[in-house]
Structures
1.
Amino acid sequence: MKHGALKRYGSKEGYDAEVLINCRAVIAKDDFVSTGILTYAQGDIMEIELPEYEVFQLGDKIKMTLYTKSGLFVFHSTVVAREPGSLIVINPPENRKKFSEKREFPRIDVKNVGYIAGFQNTTQKEQHHLENPINISIKNISMSGIGFVINDNSMIDGILYKKCILQVELDLGFDMRCRLEIIRKEKKEDGYYYGASFESVPAEQSNALRVFVLRNQIQTYFEQKRDEEFKKAMEKKSAANQ
């Protein structure tokens, strides 16, 4: 499907997110207006390539107008990152609802830790407190859940299974106590991998979690972008030497 081609997914406003890629983006702040190209849109962030990127500062409130083949989209946003030639801005929730993505909340690879303090047998409604908490290695995270690994499965063999509710504490640069529901389990080389969704997150920690996910999403995107640019440069150099 060509960029900009309209595709819907059930709902009346379910545009395919591809309509945004390579569309013209007009960014305005105060009395300054600049035009660029939207090159990335996933999860909470968008990237716009534009020559006057230096005029915009981190935290600037902006108005964005996107000219796509499926229509005109106008919304307000905030500049959250900048690098030569482009800006990273927030893709606000009300705008995200108009477009369909593979995941409602994209998962970001991380290297954090935590521990399981207890679990609940949902069938028997029993709650168990662990005298010796079980350490976990967090592999990925989103606003909807995490993926983690337990290296020593002998401690929990036959205990943790699908639909089991866990009481955990996550170290995300801040301590986050919450409840997780196990969605899946699979054997990995470094232990057992569990996919779990947040069953409850304290309201006061929800914003901190969003900031953590957003910061890591931006960092991951920049790392991948630089890796791709380096690879292309090396391929170009290799081709020139042949």
Note: The mean pLDDT is 84.
2.
Amino acid sequence: MATRALLYRRPYEPSTLLIKHGSQIYSVRLRRHRRARRYTLRIHPSDREAILTMPPRGTLTDAKDFAQRHGGWIAARLGRLPKAAPFLPGTLVPLRGVAHRIVHRAGQRGTVWTEVRDSGERILCVAGGAEHIERRVHDYLKREARRDLQKAAQTYAQALGVRVKRLSIRDQSSRWGSCTSAGSLSFSWRLILAPSYVLDYLAAHEVAHLVEMNHSARFWRVVARVCSHVERAKTWLDTSGNDLHRYGVEE
């Protein structure tokens, strides 16, 4: 085996460690990264857990000591996360930024659809067994996100004279979208929970990277040329974006 590979491979290393802060015990997920130069901690907003990144030559002893010394930080950050909103009957889900209440329609055929009650309340109807509600809502939102993002990305690609080769929908925690030089775009499905102008801006942003693979002044001029609501969308993401990570999360 190559010497370099030995630096990263730890076949018997645990994937998590437990630390105590006050009367609480927290699980910390471990991951090694070949480019890491030091130990770092971050909170995964949708998984609701701490992740400790270790350098290639890091040790479990040092990792646990680092996590324990930052127990207060972990507790505070986890405590500040927005309240979880699992995909269950009664939960309000902001489909395209508009609140829809999940309603179980066990006796009806189909999967998931929207309706508007006489009162004006918007609802997200889910057919089938109760045990399938969460998965069906999740799948529905991912499909809607893909549909809206494909349409927006195609529109902007035509306007800029570029080609999107592939579009993926994921649950990215650190960024809302990404672009490769090969023409592949990736987006968080959670954008379907934001107002439509936010999803539209993210599509324009990533497609613009096919023209300028950077965040230079020229890149932002490209974005502004095709998207009129850049600042409005950026402001919404800064103030409300983190709230999107609480949906579909178990309490």
Note: The chain has two domains: 3-79, 132-246.
3.
Amino acid sequence: MSSLIAVNLPDNSYNIAIAPDSLSQLGEQMRPLGLGHKVLVISNPEIFHHYGAIIVQSLEQAGYTVSSHLIPAGESYKTLDSIARIYDTALQHRLERSSTLVALGGGVIGDLTGFAAATWLRGINFVQVPTSLLAMVDASVGGKTGVNHPQGKNLIGAFYQPKLVFIDPQVLRTLPPREFRAGMAEVIKYGVIWDEDLFTQLEKADRLQDFSDLEAELLQVILTRSCQAKADVVSQDERESGLRAILNYGHTIGHAIESLTGYSRINHGEAVGIGMVAAGAIALKMQLWTEPEASRQNALISKTGLLTHIPEDLDTGAIVESLQMDKKVKSGKVRFILPTQLGKVKITDEVPNDLLGQVIDELKQ
């Protein structure tokens, strides 16, 4: 059971390969891409402990010269300092423009590796090997790379596409349940913004809180349909000039919550879950969709074990102010992605501040 999804772009098309128990085939999959012989694998210590040996062996058997660089796990390491350390290792191993960075890890590793690849020698190859659900369905696809600034998430970055996204669903066996749930937030997002049938299939599942809850067939459906949804959107709008903004559903308030809690207390997926509940509540107050639809969304988010309320100690004014630092602000107005029905959303900058404050207050717990 495997899937191959094409991300069709004007200049930098690539494939997303999804196949169980396929990590040992990475080198074989990379060989037809015409990459140089030097590869630097970027990972974190825990992931590298689980999968580093099989990846390195696969690459070496395919004829690559392989080195590695490890970064401690966590959003707090998604910084320019971590990028500088990658540069140091790239220089030490004399990486060239034909060389390749391989991102073995979750979204943080993918974003760091992509940004390093985009900027080292003005751009070298990189390959995504995501090991978290969130990275598989979202962060590894689409070419958004970057690091955080103390005052905002992903304020420093570049659009830079990988040469390949290589997904082995079985690596999710070692993913902590909390991180699995975080990835489910992005899966639900695709159901709300693009794929109502995916949403309905998720509703039918008995449990969605851990890898062990899912049959292999459902997991393949989740990965394939989520990646296909993102590929469809990115193929139409590579650099977020229009349609691609809908992929930020739940992220506007979500990013503010992440930032105000220091990127440590609430993880990205949890923040997006809260952000989707908030966006749904805003849409309901603006009469864009119905109470039954909002309830279905919130019930599915709850079913995954994600948070549905804003921490009560966060100041409403601070959240509203933090929204002004969002990358999507234009002419001082915050853009929101709001649902109009399951499977469809609209982009608007016409959310009144008093309504926004009211929703935030109502969601505090």
Note: Residues 76 and 248 are 21 Å apart (CA to CA).
